[in-house]
Design goal:
This protein has 106 residues and is an all-alpha fold. It has one domain. Helices cover 64% and strands 0% of the residues. It is built from 6 helices and no strands. Helix 2 runs antiparallel to helix 4 and helix 2 runs parallel beside helix 6. The radius of gyration is 15 Å and the shape is elongated. The N terminus is likely disordered.
Length: 106
């Protein structure tokens, strides 16, 4: 995909409709939600353990929860539409994790 295709998408300056407003906070919230699934035996058998390991690996490899100058947030400063997509995906992922936890608790 050429860079001209990436810049054709209009970006709203508004925060996402729910959840966190930056990638690091959203990644930390996802990790915390996955970690909270540890206490639910129905989820912890393999699902939660594997998802937490997968998420930690993804986070560590791209620096999603980093607050430093090499964070994913900082690296996406010139492509706000991509940042917005990643932020939205993380927010949706957290909601999904929370719904799985609620299901496991019932």
């Amino acid at each position: 995909m050429s860079s001209s295709n990436l810049t054709q998408h209009p970006v709203s300056s508004a925060d996402p409709p729910f959840g966190c407003s930056n990638i690091a906070d959203a990644a930390i919230a996802c990790r915390n939600s996955l970690t909270s699934c540890n206490t639910i035996s129905y989820l912890w058998d393999e699902w939660a353990e594997n998802r937490l390991a997968d998420f930690r690996l993804w986070d560590a490899s791209i620096g999603a929860s980093s607050q430093s100058g090499s964070s994913l947030e900082d690296r996406l400063i010139s492509t706000p539409h991509i940042k917005k997509v990643i932020l939205s995906l993380l927010n949706v992922f957290k909601v999904t994790i929370d719904e799985c936890r609620e299901f496991g608790e019932s």
